[in-house]
Structure formats: C-alpha cells, structure tokens
Amino acid sequence: MKTLGILGGMSAESTVSYYLNINRAVNQVLGGNSSAKMLISSVNFQEIVQHQKQGNWQRAGEMLAEQAKLLEQAGAEGILLATNTMHKVAKQISDNISVPFLHILDCVADNIQAKGLSKIALLGTQFTMSDNFYRDGLRERGITPIVPDEAKQKEIHRIIFDELCLGKIESTSKAFYLETIKQLSKQGAEGVVLGCTEIGLLIQQSDCELPFFDTAELHSQMAVDFVLGE
C-alpha cells in the first residue's frame, strides 16, 4: 500500500469527507481493520481565504507547495489537494514535488466521458465558475462547461463559504441550488459537476434527475486506486 499525502483544511468539512471516504473504500477492499496510510497537512483556511480575496494566488500556491514538500519529506508517495478551487495553483504544487500529483480534473473528466456526456453544468466557488483554470481544464479534457449567470454565481459562492464550510445546511440554499441546476439543464446541461468539495453536503443525486459528478467522491476514489496501486 502506498502512503498518500493530503493537503487539507480547505475546508475542514470536506477534508473529513475525504478521510472517511478513502478509509471506508480501502477497508471494503482489504477487509478486517484495514485503513489507508495517509499523512494530512491541514492548513488554516482563513489564511487561504484572505489570499483568495486579495487575488494573491502566488502566495497561496507557495504555502500549499511548502506543505506538499513537507508531506513528501515525511513519506508521502503521492499528493492530493482536497479542494477544487485551489487547483488554480496545482502547477505550483506539482512543480515543487517529485511524487505524483492527483489532479481532480483528471478523474472528473474521465467519469463524465465514461457516461458519454460532454456538456456539463458547473457549480462551485465563484473562482471555479468564473476563472479559466477550471473551465479551460475541462475543455482541454473534452468537456464543455455551462455556468450560472453572475448573480447566481455570487449566491452559490456565498452559500459555500458562509454555510457549507461552517457545517450549516439550509433548506432554502438547497432549493436555490436545485433551481439553478434546472435552469442550466434548459441550457443543454447533460449532467452536473459539483465543483466544490462541500456541495455534496447540501445536495445529493436523489435530489435531481441529471447525473451528478461529486468531485469529492470521485477524487477520493482516485486516491483509493492510487494507494492500492490500481
């Protein structure tokens, strides 16, 4: 079994889901009391959020690259960044380590294509929905993203940071997300990328007819395949 290094804490809520998903899946395969070998660097999310607000992605990337190097030095054989938004600085991280970087867009695109889909609604933080790093990353992998208008992006973003990252689940927010998905479906969306690792805490596949691609779940499975050497 390989040792996985996780860059976490962005937010703590989603990092917990990664930890549980990976360990449960490994245990299901290996049985007994088996669990995954993981090292976790949990950063202070407030520091990252401040850099995001200031547009100082360079410093945020440096912080995460430093932590990734520490994980590698501690024995991590691969690095997973447990958040969608901070994949904006994925290259900074991967350029500073010598072990594999498990990129979230690779597993997301693979799963979308496996279902024969190509036009997908994208929900996430406003950075993820509006910046080119995520949308272009999907396009480079053969997926056409559709995003909500700016006003809806702002409300989706607010719900993530003011509610989901703090463990708050509000029925009105759930209804807003589902109505947004319905509108994107009318624009041709064939499925929905839950492009923030907290969104799966609010809405589930049973809430919608369009297929969901829960990035936290897909990324966790990618991690399981890595640690088990598959």
Question: Could you explain how this protein is built, in words?
Answer:
Helix 4 links the parallel strand 3 (78-81) and strand 4. Helices cover 51% and strands 14% of the residues. The model has no long low-confidence stretch (mean pLDDT 95). It is built from ten helices and eight strands. It is globular and about 50 Å long. The protein starts with a strand and ends with a helix. The protein has a four-stranded parallel sheet with strand order 2-1-3-4, with helices on both faces. It has 230 residues and is of the alpha/beta class. It folds into two domains: 4-103 and 217-228, Rossmann fold, CATH 3.40.50.1860; 118-210, 3-Layer(aba) Sandwich (Rossmann fold). Keywords: Isomerase. It comes from Mannheimia bovis. This is Aspartate/glutamate racemase family protein. Belongs to the aspartate/glutamate racemases family.
**Biggest sheet, strands in spatial order?**
2-1-3-4
Terminal CA distance? 10 Å
Tell me the overall shape: globular
The fraction of residues in strands falls at 5-15%
Q: Helix fraction?
A: 40-55%
User: Would you give the CATH topology of the largest domain?
Assistant: Rossmann fold
Sheet of most strands = 4 strands, parallel
> SS-based structural class?
alpha/beta
Number of strands: 8
Domain tally: 2
Mean pLDDT: 95
Number of helices: 10
Radius of gyration: 17 Å
CATH architecture descriptor name of the largest domain: 3-Layer(aba) Sandwich
Order of helices and strands: EHEHHEHEHEHHEHHEEH
Which stretches are poorly predicted, pLDDT < 50 over at least 5 residues?
A: none
GO molecular function, one term: amino-acid racemase activity
Protein name: Aspartate/glutamate racemase family protein
InterPro entries: Asp/Glu/hydantoin_racemase, Asp/Glu_race, Asp/Glu_racemase_AS_2, Asp_race
Family: Belongs to the aspartate/glutamate racemases family.
